Amino acid sequence: MLGSDLFTGYYGMERHQFEQMPVFPLMQAAIFRVFGVGVAQIRALPVACGLVLLAAVFAVGRQVGGDRVGAVAVILMVGLRVADSGNATGILLLDRARINRYDIAVPVFALLALWTFNRAERDRVASGTR
Fold first, then answer.
1. In a domain, 65, yes or no
2. Is 107 exposed, middle or buried (0-12, 13-18, 19+ CB in 10 A)?
3. How many structural domains is the chain composed of?
4. Does some domain include residue 18?
5. How far from 94 is each of 49, 52, 53, 73, CA to CA, in Å?
6. Is the pTM of this model over 0.90?
7. Which domain holds residue 55?
8. Does residue 120 have a pLDDT over 70?
9. In-domain check, residue 12
10. Are 72 and 96 in contact (CB under 8 A)?
């Protein structure tokens, strides 16, 4: 058994071990199915996720504080250097988008969820429902 006894009886989790959610590998598999396997295909999804991340950062920044806040947030994502190490640039967006790992998809889904939540809350308040 791969699962932990800690979760025994909770929807069969004692029989499973999830180290990452399957969405990113499934999207990668779809790219391989359509375009074949190669370096460009491997890098296409992380780069696309990076672009979607920039759009999500702008959308949430705009939602919170207007166009100027959204633009500043995107500029910080692209240019802020937070670390200085080995082969990395220190710019989180570039360092995550250049390798084929699911790390780049996590903030995309998180920010899209935040954007959706904020929008639903704003619509609820505007309609006067509680």
1. yes
2. buried
3. 1
4. no
5. 11, 13, 11, 15
6. no
7. 39-127
8. yes
9. no
10. no
